UniProtKB/TrEMBL annotation:
Localization: Membrane
Pfam families for the chain: DUF423 (PF04241)
Membrane-spanning residues: 47-64, 71-94, 100-121
Species of provenance: Christiangramia sabulilitoris
Similarity remark: Belongs to the UPF0382 family.
Domain of life: Bacteria
Protein name listed in UniProt: DUF423 domain-containing protein
Alphabetically ordered keywords of this record: Membrane, Transmembrane, Transmembrane helix
Bilayer topology annotation: Multi-pass membrane protein
GO CC annotation terms, alphabetical: plasma membrane
Length: 129
């Protein structure tokens, strides 16, 4: 078991459910439909990666040392991608313009892609028994 992955997965899952409920009940009337859809994209990507963290956390076939880079790429990617979307979408109700951080969304997405790619390489290199 990889405790860091399991804890991160649980935290990402918990906050995704809270933010998803907040979007559905609290933001629906105060932000545009387009912004709400973007916010929901951030929640969706966060929950997908919460599941990924939980799955990786339960794997015994890969050593933790081999997963450290993958962990940080995925963790940072989720934070940059989803949180930037949350701020960009809900900026109007916060009374702030977060357009200056818009570059963080594709940067976070790129880190997620790299994390998945390295995970794929690790799986390809697994020896069959």
């Amino acid at each position: 078991m990889h405790r860091k992955f399991l804890i991160s997965g649980a935290v990402f899952g918990l906050t995704a459910v809270i933010l998803g409920a907040f979007a559905a009940h609290g933001l629906k009337e105060v932000i545009s439909a387009e912004s709400l859809k973007s916010f929901e994209t951030g929640v969706r990507f966060q929950i997908y990666h919460a599941f990924l963290f939980l799955i990786i956390g339960g794997l015994k076939v890969l050593s933790f040392e081999k997963l450290n880079t993958i962990y940080y790429l995925l963790f940072t990617g989720v934070i940059l991608f989803s949180v930037s979307i949350y701020l960009l979408s809900a900026g109007t109700i916060l009374g702030m313009n977060f357009r200056a951080i818009a570059i963080l969304t594709p940067l976070g997405g790129t880190l997620l892609i790299l994390g998945w790619f390295l995970l794929l390489l690790k799986f390809i290199k697994l020896k069959t028994k």
